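# nightly structure sweep
# worker-07 picked up a monomer target from the shared queue
# config: single-sequence mode, recycle default, output format = structure tokens
# input follows
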Amino acid sequence: MDAIPTQRATDDRRHLDRLRAPDSDVAVPSNPAALESVARLLAQAFSAR
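# output follows
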């Protein structure tokens, strides 16, 4: 007999899918050096104004 997925299991799976495939307009580098360089570029862009 197949197990019937519970609502919680379905929600957990959806959450994991979202983590695995984030929206295309949201990019979060997992590399700390990349985060630092992005932060530096943003700081330069806003201080140039």
